[in-house]
Each structure stands twice: as structure tokens, then as C-alpha cells.
Write a structure and sequence with these properties.
The chain is mainly α. Helix content is 79%, strand content 0%. It has a domain of 77 residues. The chain is built from five helices and no strands.
């Protein structure tokens, strides 16, 4: 068996370096993705008036988002991802709850019309 050529060694170094860099970038990429997702879902929840109609879920989503951002600041990406997932979950729940409560409060087409009193 012959010794590897310089080209083969260079190719091995490049492939190994690429794998190491790719694996180390997973945390920052995932945490950023969850931050974006949670901010998007919070905006959808805000549109559905979740701050008034689903205050528990709304508050939890905002607190988990803030904690996720804090962990990114400390470069603790694993914790940032965990908190980001929870922020997305609670923001989604807040939006869904607000939409459900909002529909419950809307008048039904079979309800008699409300006549204002003078």
C-alpha cells in the first residue's frame, strides 16, 4: 500500500474541516431559526389579540423568547434552541386560543340583531 498523495491528504483535510465547521454551525443556525419562527408566531398572535384573549400563553411566549435571546448572547445555543422551541409552542397556542375565544365572542348569524337603545 502506497502513501497517500498530497492531493488525497488535502482533500481529506478539506472534507474533515467542512464537516467540523458544518457541525459547529448547527447550534447558531437552529437557534436563529427558532428566534425568527417565534417572532413570526408572536406577530400572528398579536394580530389575533392574544395579549387580551390568551394572556397566559402570550406572556409565556414572550418570556421564553427573551430567555432564548439571552442564551444566544451567552453562546449557549442548546438552551437557546430549547427556549426557542417553547416560545414557538406558546406563541402558536396563544394565537390558536385567541382565535377560538374571538370566534366564541362573535355574534352568530342566527342571533337577533342588536338594536341600540335611545
Amino acid at each position: 500500500m502506497s502513501a497517500p498523495s498530497a492531493f488525497q491528504r488535502l482533500r481529506w483535510v478539506l472534507v474533515t474541516s467542512g464537516l467540523v465547521l458544518g457541525a459547529s454551525a448547527c447550534g447558531p443556525v437552529q437557534s436563529t431559526s427558532y428566534l425568527i419562527d417565534s417572532e413570526t408566531m408572536l406577530e400572528a398572535a398579536r394580530t389575533a389579540q392574544a395579549d387580551k384573549l390568551a394572556p397566559y400563553e402570550w406572556t409565556a411566549a414572550n418570556l421564553y423568547l427573551a430567555k432564548s435571546k439571552e442564551e444566544v448572547g451567552y453562546s449557549d445555543f442548546e438552551q437557546a434552541v430549547d427556549y426557542g422551541k417553547k416560545a414557538v409552542e406558546f406563541a402558536t397556542r396563544a394565537r390558536d386560543t385567541a382565535l377560538k375565544v374571538g370566534r366564541r365572542n362573535e355574534p352568530s348569524p342566527t342571533d337577533p340583531p342588536v338594536v341600540p337603545t335611545p
